[in-house]
Amino acid sequence: MRSRKPLSASSPPELSILEGFLQRDVLAGISVALVLIPQSLAYAALAGLPPVYGLYASVLPPIAAAFFASSRYLQTGPVAITSLLTLAALSPLAIPGSVDYLMLAPLLALVVGVCRLAIGLAGAGFVAYLLSQPVLTGFTSAAALLIVASQLAVVVGLPMTPGQELAQLPQLLSHPAAWSPLALAVTALTVAIILLGRRIHVLFPGVLLVVVVGILGQHWAHSELALVGPLPAALPRFGLSLDFAPLRSLLLPGLVIAVVGFAEPTAIARTLATQTRQAWSANRELISQGVANVAAACAGAFPVGGSFSRTMVNHLAGGFSRWSGAVTGVAVLLFLPFAGVLAELPRCVLAGIVITAVLGLFQPRALWRITQVSRAQGAVAWGTFALTLGLAPRIDQAVGLGVGLAVAVHLWRERRIALGVNYDATRKELRLTPVGVLYFGSANVIDDALGAELVKNPQAKRVVFDLRRMGRIDFTGAMVLFRIAEDARLAGLQVRVIPGEAPQGELLLRRVFGAQSQVIVRE
Hints:
This protein is of the alpha/beta class. The chain folds into 3 domains: 19-235 and 245-361, no CATH class; 364-414, no CATH class; 418-519, 2-Layer Sandwich (Transcription Regulator spoIIAA), CATH 3.30.750.24. Helix content is 59%, strand content 7%. The chain is built from 22 helices and 7 strands. The strands form 2 sheets. Strands 3, 4, 5, 6 and 7 form a 5-stranded mixed sheet that branches. The protein has a two-stranded antiparallel ribbon with strand order 1-2. α1 packs antiparallel against α14.
């Protein structure tokens, strides 16, 4: 009798595609939908849109993404960071919630979708790794604080101008007597139930429970809390009847959302793919997320992305294939005619759902750990953190400045070349042995060192540049080295250059040195 291997989390039972879909994908997809429906309402409000637009962004995008995704677990739909970035991109162009704003949102989704499609089709999936961890940690930590701050008006039961929550925050905090104790209590209860449910089990339906309790409580108590209000039971209008006049203003924010919104959630997809021994492709995932955003634009919605929390729900609920995401979209579609049941849901419940969703993004310990490991990278992390808070609501600009800060720190560190100097008085030979990367920012180190050493050793007749410990030489670095060698040769010194082991480096040097390539020798 053939023995059977024990099942584990990393080796799912062998099922046919149909069996896996019916037995596991349907259950996992519905489980995710139960979390997605209330979350989508909250994230739409965070993006400055009517709550129902969150449902519109939860139908077509996960269905479209399922056709192209490489991860069997990654769940697509409205997410907190992308919603905040959407508000940052659109609020300077139109009043949140206005007709113009509603027309800009699908155009931004289209820009995000085209950017991700272009990157994926070009095979440039490595962009998922271009946002350094310090930049990403600093940005997401600050963004989490901004998201929580944007919910405070709802938490304390006060009206607030859409899109101006952060600007009006000082006024809000200075009048605690006007706060609603009931709204505070309901929000605190919402957060407590969801967090307690996570401690009981990750699949505990905490979000669904608070929604049901909130609706029933409002129905019985008839409180004066702000409610979600009537939700249309009709399907969204599908199509791409967009006004492309503001397109130029959305190109850079769209690119930022395309990269930032892809970098973090795909980390969990990569991790799960490794744990379950499944293939994963960043390029295919970019294509699937690009198609999902184009689908969001067709539904008149706003940019979407991969959700960390819902991906974990899908995984732990036993998702078998990428089609569980399509089941989620279909489940939301079937719910749309009944969306009116959420009309009596207090908005402070949605605020509690958003707050619990982003608590894990605030990582002060990670910021401190980065600082302990590297002060330079700590400066990048804390600098991005400060820029994100200081430039709010234009946090898309903070991302660009954070990346620029990371590049500047990298170039500054690469500029420091360790230079070994040895003078042989017998042979009157001065040998310079640089260690590091020779590029446009570091080449002058060799130039300065040679001048200083020739002053110390004026009797030198021969200079040797030993490049065998150089990591890399770029064209500018080679050109500067050629100029240094030429100046030394014209000063009467015999010059020799010992290239590194890489054939490409030696070929570059010989091409740059041209007629003087005989100075390049090997020892």
